[in-house]
Design a protein that fits this description.
By secondary structure, the chain is an alpha/beta fold. The protein has 18 helices and 29 strands.
Length: 668
């Protein structure tokens, strides 16, 4: 036994960027106490579960002021060594509290101090999907790609699997996974959306007999804990999850796959703002294993890393199985008759494809019935009382909803300003489009896939089953439907409005528009039937749209990269954004101005811009302001940020603001 005063240095799930010292509980055997175990401690009036970082002989605090830890919860570290190191790296790089980062890495049950010894058996493989079991024959491009991945086993390599939609990227994943499974290794697969996990799990369980577990925010606490522990023990060989799954401990990691690597959903947009794709690359490096980034529309960051020889590009320029790429048609809304967002030409095309016993998919990235409720007498518009935005009409629920703060109000019968019975919905949402299509194509099932129709567990799977069992059907979807889904009977894809990304204040909007359009277009003609894509626009001659349609995504991306280089925008520079919120607008401005005075504004090295209002200038009653820090060298940015962060914790209290630092922001 080693007697006190030995000090337990603990990371607690708090936004404070420091560690906390505690005295050990009575009768602790220090020989068996290891960094990484969970420890229950008192903190102010609460009890928190933290992670032991180290055992020290001394503390900066007087001995008599130290509190005693309440209990040691684990015999072994709760996270594997590589995840522990990854959390340390993420804390340093994104400048976030180590305690909060470690808490993010654990399921909620473990954060609450629950036992880490509970297990639930994985679901057995379903017999009804046995006929998907055999590997498919690869074409020459697929064979080259697979060979390169397998040749890199047990070594760190980053592969960008750049394949057009329907080119068979998933089959390459499966065959690369098979080799790793035969060698006793585990595979971590990251997908951008919860909606993609059911079909991914279906394909993987159909091919492999090994246990497959899923990790995402939609699971119940005990389900997620079970999957976490099965992965850590090595019992689960295939782990599929959304961005937070990057922190899942693995006993024998062999391969990491990031599907749809370009997707902005991999960047956390609140609290701990990490990028799961970038952390996946770091984790692969730590474990000296290969990582595959798959996409039909790679991010500009990944394409530049290929150009700089940091990544190896594997190209799949043709669709698998002889399927052809779809034909594009631009429909000029300025010259066509339009009813509720549907041009006469698009309506005729829909009828033609349905008459040929095919399915049609329409894309509109705006849920609800109408984005505006308008008074025709006094021009009043229903706006959110707490946000800088308008209330969206949800007709079926007879309510207005703010899509920024999620506040709901009852649908008014009369104008809130003049009192007249003259309210009209303006604009088009997926629900209104669904209503219009039902009138034009009676007897044809219209299936809407958006966040409103898939809120409950199992609803997404039910909708996908309906789509796959119906002969004729019209699908309506937001971006949820654009990512990774395989609909072999869809021969026509209609994009209701392609113009939003052409005129945006966010410099990434054009990149994301091109990616989304090509991903949506990729749902057409994926089997033996040829596909058609109809794009409705009021700017058919826009140069970016013409390049995308005529020359394809690769030329489009290279054009955007050239623009970014001239403008010195990411990925040719590094950004960080301080985001401040306050009920008093002046407080947010003064706080960010104070930060600006602390940062060295060095000509040609470091530039500080702002503060300026956010694109959503007010949210939940809070005024939102941004301060942009820009440099050409990442090391300069990191040093500058680190030099001021400790001071900011005290500064924020004096200005009554909420603030967060966003390194490598996805939205600017």
């Amino acid at each position: 036994m080693i007697n006190p005063p030995f000090i337990l240095r603990i990371a607690l799930p708090l936004p404070l960027r420091r560690l906390f010292d505690y005295l050990p509980p009575q009768d602790i055997d220090f020989k068996n106490l290891k960094p990484g175990v969970r420890i229950c401690v008192p903190f102010q009036s609460r009890t928190l579960t933290g992670i032991l970082i180290s055992i020290e002989k001394n503390s900066d605090l007087p001995y008599e002021k130290l509190k005693c830890a309440l209990a040691i919860l684990d015999e072994q570290p709760i996270l594997t060594e590589d995840v522990y190191k990854l959390c340390h790296f993420a804390s340093e790089y994104y400048h976030y509290s180590l305690g909060d980062v470690l808490a993010t890495a654990m399921p909620v049950q473990l954060r609450k101090g629950k036992s880490a010894n509970v297990k639930i058996k994985a679901k057995s493989k379903s017999a009804k999907v046995e006929a998907l079991d055999k590997p498919l024959q690869l074409n020459a491009d697929q064979q080259l790609a697979l060979g390169a991945i397998l040749a890199a086993k047990e070594s760190f390599r980053v592969f960008l699997l750049d394949g057009v939609t329907g080119s068979g990227k998933t089959e390459i994943y499966l065959q690369a996974m098979a080799e790793n499974l035969n060698a006793g290794k585990q595979i971590l697969v990251l997908v951008p959306e919860i909606s993609l996990t059911p079909q991914t799990v279906f394909r993987f369980r159909a091919r492999f007999s090994e246990p497959v577990v899923v990790l995402h925010s939609g699971l119940r606490g005990q389900e997620r804990l079970s999957a976490f522990l099965m992965a850590k023990s090595g019992e689960a060989k295939i782990i599929i999850g959304t961005r937070s799954a990057i922190f899942t401990p693995l006993a024998t990691p062999g391969l990491i796959i990031v599907d749809e690597e370009h997707d902005p959903s991999f960047k956390q947009q609140d609290r701990f703002r990490y990028h799961a794709r970038d952390l996946a690359i770091m984790r692969a490096s730590m474990n000296q294993i290969p990582i595959v980034l798959g996409s039909a529309t790679p991010s500009l960051e990944s394409l530049l890393n290929v150009k700089r020889k940091r990544y190896t590009k594997l190209s799949l320029p043709e669709r698998a199985g002889g399927a052809k790429l779809p034909q594009f048609h631009l429909l000029d809304l300025r010259t066509l008759q339009v009813e509720q967002g549907l041009s006469s030409t698009l309506l005729a095309m829909i009828q033609k494809h349905l008459d040929e016993d095919n399915q049609v998919m329409l894309f509109l990235n705006r849920r609800g019935y109408a984005p505006v409720l308008y008074c025709t007498q006094c021009s009043w518009i229903a706006e959110c009382a707490r946000c800088d935005g308008r209330m969206v009409l949800h007709k079926s629920k007879k309510q207005l909803q703010c899509h920024r703060c999620d506040i709901h109000t009852r649908l008014p019968e009369k104008c809130g300003h003049c009192g007249q019975d003259s309210l009209q919905p303006v604009g088009l949402g997926t629900q209104r489009l669904e209503e219009t299509l039902a009138k034009h194509f009676s007897g044809i099932p219209v299936i809407r896939v958006d966040r409103d129709s898939t809120r409950r567990k199992g609803e997404m799977e039910n909708l996908l089953d309906q789509i796959n069992t119906q002969k004729k059907v019209i699908l309506i979807g937001t971006q949820m439907l654009a990512k990774g889904h395989h609909f072999p009977n869809v021969t026509l894809v209609g994009i209701i409005d392609a113009d939003s990304g052409l005129f945006s204040a966010d410099f990434r909007a054009a990149e994301q528009m091109g990616q989304l359009l090509m991903q949506v277009a990729g749902r057409a003609g994926r089997a033996e039937k040829e596909g058609t894509v109809a794009i409705q626009t009021r700017h058919p001659n826009h140069p970016l749209l013409q390049i995308l349609i005529q020359q394809g995504y690769q030329s489009y991306a290279q054009t955007l990269l050239a623009e970014r280089e001239v403008s010195v925008l990411p990925p040719y520079s590094c950004f960080a954004v301080f985001r401040a919120e306050s009920y008093a607008e002046e407080n947010a401005n003064r706080f960010l101005t104070e930060i600006k005075s602390m940062l060295p504004d060095v000509v040609d090295v470091l530039t500080v811009l702002g503060p300026v209002p956010a694109l959503t200038a007010k949210r939940k009653g809070l005024h939102c302001k941004h301060l942009l820090v820009k440099t050409n060298k990442r090391s300069v940015l990191q040093t500058a940020l680190k030099s001021i962060l400790i001071q900011l914790e005290l500064l924020a209290k004096s200005y009554s603001v909420k603030w967060v630092l966003d390194v490598d922001p996805a939205e600017v």
